[in-house]
């Protein structure tokens, strides 16, 4: 490196001293070619998009590092340029120093020879001469080495040759002196030292002057070179730093551009995709990561478009199905406002989509139902519980029909309700059929009641006989008291009031019978169950007596009233008590009616007997219609009783007694809620 720089310097120096400019032109041309080749290589290297981004980044980084190293090298080189003249001066000084030492040796050679010659000691002379020889040779060798190390001096002044001749001359003088000393020619030795050696001293002195002159010249030149080098340093180094910076910035920008360019295209495509534009394709050539990503993106967009198309198709199909469904389908928001109503809804209500959305759907609801329907809907919206309600919707022609409206919420993964999906099913025909069925059942129950009353007629007429006979007796007594000579009016009045009481009793019996015969719509009222039990006991007492059955009651005091239809409850008691009496027909026994409050606060009523007990083979079916074990039985009593009890919100069931007979239990709610329940009973 140092040699090559030296050579270069030398070339410059020689150029400065008039060497051919042709060489310089060649060098510059070659340098331009190298730079062009490098630049082209780098350009083509970075243009290749099949190289990975990683490669781009690494290559860019290496090039930047290379530029920095090059700039550093230029700086070092320039620094060396400043330091090189000083070095040259130092070397020249060393040469000068070495030559001066040679001169001093020559100088001391003369005095030493004179001193040794005056001693006349041959051996010492020879020994000292050998030492002087060695020392001189060392000095000369050292001086020559120094000269070789500083070729500028060597070139400008042929000092080596002068040194060589000095060495040869001094050594021959020394050899001659030694020979003369051995021969004992001490005068000759002293003479030579006095005559010959000063010529040598003069020669070496001239050599020292020459070297000094050369050194001085070198120093002057070095100072000039150093100044120029310093000036160059302050121009070249900032330029090199600036160029490095520019090159690094350009490379950085280029590498960034090779990444951000495709990236911005990818971003544009992603945004287009987000807008639903699946046609947007990425056009990235090559095989680098971004190109691969672009291809994957294009593929994903194609697949997405396919999926989207499929989805749209299936959504359209689903919408067609929803539109074509023979039931009303609707979608509502979380605030209960309508978002969609299918074709069936629009056709039925005659309301367009625009008139239905939001709160518009309420126009189709029957004004009477609206408040209750809206409250129930709001309760579901608030609780998130599925919605279900019966409501009347107005048809386009103005007629109202009943619908069962149901809705369930759609939730996200966190359970948050997004919207409600609902269906409204027309239940008008079903409702009418149910009502017809209920009416028929009521008729059947009435027929059942009347047929039972037919059976009761005999005993009831016996019951009626008593107040009528008593009234007759009291009437006769009254007449007797009045026919006296002195009519006893007070007694007659007593008899008359007894007649009135008897008449009232008979009227009451007839009224009870009449209420059972009467076919009226069910009516809920607050009734005292204990009172109905007492009435039915009175009514059936004659029938019970006929079969030696005694009726007992075990009624809890202060029972709350039940919201019930009085006549329907009478019918239940009559069915259960007549069945009990019939079960004890052959044997007689005890019929016990008990009331109490159960643990749920409901009325619990039981009718038990000591009769034949429940039929074992039909124990599960006795509550079914037309199931009977009696030759003349209709099998409707228990079925009707159960439907009445259940329509009141209670339950009816039967258990076998531990001893003889069976017990029938039923519950009745005591709350006033039952009053508000829709009447569905007989
Ligand atoms: P019916 O009395 O016309 O047979 P019900 O529906 O009242 O119809 O009774 C159905 C059947 O239940 C009766 O035929 C009878 O077998 C049975 N049953 C009802 N009450 C009693 C009872 N107290 N003891 C025993 N069996 C009964």
Tell me about this structure.
By secondary structure, the chain is α+β, with helices and mostly antiparallel strands. The chain has 17 helices and 12 strands. The strands form 3 sheets. Strands 2-1-5-4-3 form a 5-stranded antiparallel sheet, with helices on both faces. The protein has a 5-stranded mixed sheet with strand order 7-9-10-12-11. Strand 1 and strand 2 form a beta hairpin. Helix 7 packs parallel to helix 8. The longest helix has 89 residues. Bound molecules: adenosine-5'-diphosphate.
What structural keywords apply?
12 strands; five-stranded mixed beta sheet; disordered C terminus; alpha+beta; 682 residues; binds adenosine-5'-diphosphate
| Major β-sheet annotation | 5 strands, antiparallel
In terms of per-residue confidence, which ranges show pLDDT below 50 for 5 or more consecutive residues? Answer: 1-25, 672-682
Strand order within the widest beta sheet: 2-1-5-4-3
Tell me how many strands there are: 12
Measured by DSSP, the beta-strand proportion falls in 5-15%
Indicate the percent of residues in helices.
Answer: 55-70%
Instruction: Kindly report how far apart the N and C termini lie.
Output: 123 Å
List ligands, each type once: adenosine-5'-diphosphate
- Which geometry do the CA atoms define? rod-shaped
What structural category arises from helix and sheet content? Answer: alpha+beta
Question: Total number of helical segments?
Answer: 17
Overall residue-averaged pLDDT value: 82
Tell me the series of helices and strands, N- to C-terminal. Answer: HHHHHHHHEEHHHEEEHHEHEEHEEHEEH
Radius of gyration using CA atoms only: 69 Å
